[in-house]
Each structure stands twice: as structure tokens, then as C-alpha cells.
Write a structure and sequence with these properties.
The protein is mostly helical. 64% of the residues lie in helices and 2% in strands. It contains 18 helices and 4 strands. The strands form 2 sheets. Strands 1-2 form a two-stranded antiparallel sheet. Strands 3-4 form a two-stranded antiparallel ribbon. Strand 1 and strand 2 form a beta hairpin. It is globular, with a radius of gyration of 23 Å.
Length: 577
């Protein structure tokens, strides 16, 4: 690994650390209902929103009520988006006259589900399919709503650990409204201005046609990009305004916008770990979770960047320079933007799959086998390497419950976490959430690998073709949205099966975790004793990392062996002949 790569990683984590504590502390105040400076400006809008919704923000909901409100809100959002997409031809802000022809029923289903679940998988080319209205209303509204829902779930689970002898876990509507008004909105206003200053367009004008120097006609697509770009990254949504996503110069013009994007993607997922520590009354608990996430992230970054910088044996055999020099980046530059090079591209791949973001600035399908294994494995962990807004924390807390259960078995004591006894019900709910993810990924991958209509849409055969299918369903189930992109995914088969995988990965995980939150909130705190296993230390952070890796390895090693691992050894074998 080059010195510049190490320097970039150090700067990136330093920026992340500078953000984590102040933003995390601020979010803890927001979700506790405490007064903040922004309430003077937006407090009236918050109260008006409650009146329009007809809800009492002070009502403390049981987990069942909280869950029903969440599911109904998500269902209504899904139906609204599906209808708006199918009817975009008769709706305003459609200068390109896109209609139902560009958005058939199976694609509209997939797209509506994708944005509702914070996945933002795109089986279509946005600039050739989606009107401005569809982008801004039918889809971008989910960039706000689905992000707020994810954070609400995390906060509800935190309350389960923080409260004692309580029946409720908070108010869903208050959590979503406060997250939107006091967290997402101000950060998006600032971020959109930064993107506009870096060259990202913000316009409602129709696409413009130019005459090139050769005399040909070229249509340049643009639109309200900056406002969409910031919530796409901040809310770890990932759906691009353009098909090239963050590799497009209108979405990501230069190295500064690229670095800003990387910081934005992990800003809330990292900071909410400190929110967790503040709300449970022990900041060290939050830093232990942060440390586990950072360790997993750093390991992936080192492997991915090193693999891409090393290139392939085929390049060496062809006497192509693979070592980085002052004049060229070396390594594997296939599928990468020359504006960003190998290090920034590989770092982006790790960050976007470590968070459930899915935005890309390079083609993951063109990575080396080991380089491509890293973003795939990041998703297979359940998106807990910082993860999506809220989703990363509640996923990691699920693993924390399993970790203290395993530790309890090893020392022969009742497991405890944040002062709560972890008993059979909590472990069952954590295991159910874990098994749901694995079952969805493996079932749909196996089905699509043997179904002729599915394999016929692959651009590659052998282990790489399998990896493309495996990656797609790992991305869909774990609500990431990125792709190896070697599949023609805009077909009835993939649109329907990926849509189902997204629903399973989102809602069949949420329900057991909210049930866990309700059970924990009812419990009293357990006094710390000499037999209590400390969960705010580097030792526990290491155990947490080990549990994540072991569960991922046991669940997905056969799939990884059939895909990127065997492809790596095939590459080495071919290079020797």
C-alpha cells in the first residue's frame, strides 16, 4: 500500500472522529425531546406536523403499536410511489415526457420497494426513465422517510436498553418528524450548498442538446442534482440521479466532492454510536461499538486497496507496469475513474458497502476477485460496518446481544448487556433476524443460479457470473443497492425477486428487533458485580468483531468459495500457463 493511501485513510478516520462526538451528542438531545437551537426556528413546523397527522407526540407506544405505525407508514409510502411512477406521464415536471412505457409494472414495483426500504437499487437508467417529479417526489421523499425510519428503529432499541420497568419504547411519529426536521434537513441544506459550490448542478430546465466539434448532436442530461445528491449520501440511500451514479461528473465533480461524499456517508452511522452511549448513560459503550465497526472497516479497506493496487498476474505477464509511480497509478485501473484513481475508488467501494448506501464511483464488477470480495462481504455482515443510518447500529446491537450470550456461555454466567439480563427471548429475536438475512440471500441466489431465465441474463459465466447473482441478492436483502452490474436486472424475474428480498431484509429484521426492544424496556437494571462481563472495553469490541466475522463466515463461506475465492485461484492458475 502506498504512503498516499495510508495518509488518505488517516485523514478520513480523523474527520470521522471529529464529527462523531458533537453530532452524536446533538442527536441524543433531539431524540430525548430536549430543546435545541433549531427548535426556535422549526418548532412551529414540528407542532403543525403533529396536528396534521393527528398524533400525540407524548404518547409512549408499546413495541407492537410502534411496529404497526412503522409498517403502515412504509406501506402507504410504497403504494404512493408505485402509483406516482406508473402515472408519471400525466404528472407535472416531466419535460422529457417519460411515461408508463419507461416504467412498466414490474419495474415500478421493484423501484417503489427499493426506495421504501432504503435500498435504492436501480434496474433502470434514471436519465432515460424517470421524470423530475418522479425523482423529487415519488423517490427522493423516501431518501428522507426511509432514513428517518431507520434511525427511529435504532433509537427505539436504544430506549429498550436505557429504560427500566417501562412499557413503551417511544413515539414513532415523534422520532421520524424530529429526525427529519432537526437532523436530516439542516445537514442537507449545508451539504447541498457544498455540492453546488463544487460544481454539482441544480436546475429544472429540460435536457440540452449541443453540437459537438465533429458536428454530431449530443444531449446533456441534468436537473435538480445537488438537492438529490446530499440526501442520497447522508441518508445512505445511494440511488443516483444518473446511471453512472457518483462516477458521473455532475454528481461527483472532483476529488474534494469525492472526499466530502465519503465523510457524509458515514457521518450519521458513526455518530449514532455516540448517541447510543449518551442515551444509555455510558459513553464508553458507544465507543466500544464504534471501535468494532472501525476495526472491521479498516480491515476491509486495507484488503481492497491492496488488492486493487497490486493489479493482476495477467498485467505482470503482459509486462504492464503495476507499481504506482509519479506518472501513473499502477494496479488495476479497469472500471475506475481517472479523476479518483485506485485508492479513492477502492475506499469509496468499502465505505458505500460498509454503509447501506450503494452509491458507486467505480465499477465493482471490474475489481480483482479479492478486491470485489470485500464490498460483497461488507454487505453479508448485515451492513454493520457503520451501516445505514440507524440500520448499522441496530444491526450491531443485534450482534452485541449474541456476543454477550456467547461470553456468558464461556464463563458460565447469565449474560448481561447495558445492565439488562439477556435471556432466551432476546437471543431468539437476534438469531431470527440473523437467519432471515442469510435465508433470503442464499435462497434467492440458489434459485436464480439454476433458473434458466435468470442465468440467461448474465454477461459472465463461471464463478464471476455466480458472484454477480450472489452480490445482487446480498445487496437487495441487506438494503445496499450497489451491484456488480453484470446482470441485465430489468426483467420480471429479477425485479420481482429482488423486490421480495428487499422487503424481507428490511421488515423481517425490524419486527424481531422491535420485539427485543419492548422486552428489554420492561426489565429492571441488574447491579454490576465482580462477575459482570464489561462491555465497554477493547476486549468486548474484539469479541464483537469476532462474532460478526464468525457468523458471516459460517453463513456465507460456501457462497464466497463458489464465487470470488475460486475466481481468485483460477486467476492465479491461468497466470502460470
Amino acid at each position: 500500500m502506498t504512503f498516499s493511501a495510508i495518509l488518505l485513510l488517516l485523514c478520513y478516520f480523523a474527520a470521522l472522529l471529529l464529527i462523531t462526538k458533537p453530532l452524536g451528542a446533538y442527536m441524543a438531545r433531539v431524540f430525548a425531546g430536549e430543546r435545541t437551537p433549531l427548535q426556535r426556528v422549526l418548532g412551529g413546523l414540528e407542532r403543525t406536523t403533529y396536528r396534521v397527522l393527528g398524533v400525540d407526540p407524548n404518547e409512549d407506544m408499546k413495541w407492537t403499536t410502534y411496529c404497526v405505525a412503522l409498517l403502515l407508514f412504509s406501506l402507504a409510502s410504497l403504494v404512493f410511489s408505485y402509483g406516482a411512477l406508473r402515472l408519471q406521464g400525466v404528472l407535472p415536471l416531466n419535460p422529457q415526457h417519460f411515461g408508463a412505457t419507461q416504467m412498466p409494472a414490474h419495474l415500478a414495483f421493484n423501484t417503489a420497494v427499493s426506495f421504501t426500504t432504503n435500498t435504492n437499487w436501480q434496474s433502470y437508467s434514471p436519465e432515460l426513465t424517470i421524470s423530475y417529479f418522479s425523482n423529487m417526489v415519488a423517490l427522493a421523499i423516501h431518501n428522507w422517510a426511509s432514513a428517518a425510519v431507520g434511525m427511529a428503529i435504532a433509537i427505539a432499541l436504544i430506549r429498550g436498553f436505557a429504560r427500566k420497568n417501562a412499557e413503551g419504547i417511544g413515539n414513532f411519529w415523534a422520532d421520524v418528524v424530529r429526525c427529519t426536521l432537526y437532523v436530516l434537513l439542516p445537514l442537507c441544506l449545508i451539504g447541498a450548498l457544498v455540492f453546488m459550490a463544487s460544481g454539482v448542478p441544480q436546475s429544472f430546465a429540460p435536457y440540452t442538446t449541443f453540437t459537438t466539434l465533429e458536428g454530431a448532436q449530443q444531449t446533456i442530461a441534468f436537473g435538480p442534482v445537488a438537492s438529490q445528491e446530499i440526501i442520497k449520501q447522508l441518508g445512505t440511500n445511494g440511488g443516483g440521479f444518473f446511471n453512472a451514479n457518483s462516477a458521473h461528473p455532475f454528481e461527483n465533480p472532483n476529488w474534494l466532492s469525492n472526499l466530502f461524499t465519503l465523510i457524509v456517508i458515514w457521518s450519521i452511522p458513526a455518530s449514532i454510536t455516540h448517541t447510543f452511549g449518551k442515551m444509555v448513560g455510558n459513553a464508553k459503550q458507544g465507543w466500544a461499538v464504534f471501535g468494532a465497526m472501525a476495526a472491521l472497516a479498516l480491515a476491509g479497506m486495507l484488503i481492497c486497496i491492496s488488492a486493487e493496487q497490486a493489479g493482476t498476474p495477467h498485467l505482470d505477464a503482459a509486462h504492464i507496469q503495476t507499481a504506482a509511480t509519479a506518472l501513473q497509478p499502477g494496479g488495476n485501473m479497469e472500471g475506475k475513474e481517472v479523476r479518483f484513481g485506485i485508492v479513492s475508488s477502492a475506499l469509496f467501494a468499502d465505505v458505500t458497502t460498509g454503509a447501506s448506501c450503494g452509491a458507486v464511483n467505480s465499477m465493482h464488477d471490474s475489481y480483482t476477485p479479492l478486491g470485489g470480495l470485500v464490498p460483497l462481504f461488507n454487505m453479508l455482515t448485515g451492513e454493520v460496518i457503520f451501516g445505514g443510518v440507524g440500520a448499522g447500529l441496530y444491526g450491531m446491537l443485534m450482534f452485541a446481544v449474541l456476543a454477550v450470550f456467547i461470553a456468558g456461555l464461556m464463563v458460565g454466567r447469565t449474560p448481561e448487556y447495558i445492565g439488562k439480563k439477556i435471556e432466551r427471548f432476546e437471543v431468539q429475536m437476534a438469531m431470527l433476524a440473523t437467519l432471515v438475512l442469510a435465508a433470503s440471500v442464499l435462497f434467492f441466489t440458489a434459485l436464480s443460479s439454476t433458473y434458466g431465465a435468470a442465468t440467461g441474463n448474465l454477461n459472465n459465466a463461471g464463478p464471476h457470473g455466480f458472484s454477480e447473482i450472489f452480490y445482487a441478492f446480498a445487496s437487495g436483502t441487506n438494503n445496499n443497492g450497489s451491484a456488480f452490474a453484470g446482470i441485465t436486472a430489468n426483467t420480471p424475474w429479477y425485479n420481482v425477486t429482488l423486490g421480495l428480498a428487499m422487503l424481507i431484509g428490511r421488515f423481517l429484521v425490524i419486527v424481531p428487533l422491535l420485539a427485543m426492544a419492548g422486552a428489554l424496556a420492561k426489565k429492571n437494571a441488574v447491579a454490576v458485580s465482580s462477575g459482570t462481563f464489561p462491555t465497554d472495553t477493547p476486549t468486548f469490541a474484539g469479541l464483537l468483531v469476532a462474532v460478526v466475522l464468525i457468523v458471516g463466515a459460517l453463513s456465507y463461506f460456501p457462497g464466497l468459495s463458489l464465487g470470488p475465492i475460486v475466481e481468485h485461484y483460477q486467476m492465479l492458475a491461468l497466470a502460470t500457463h
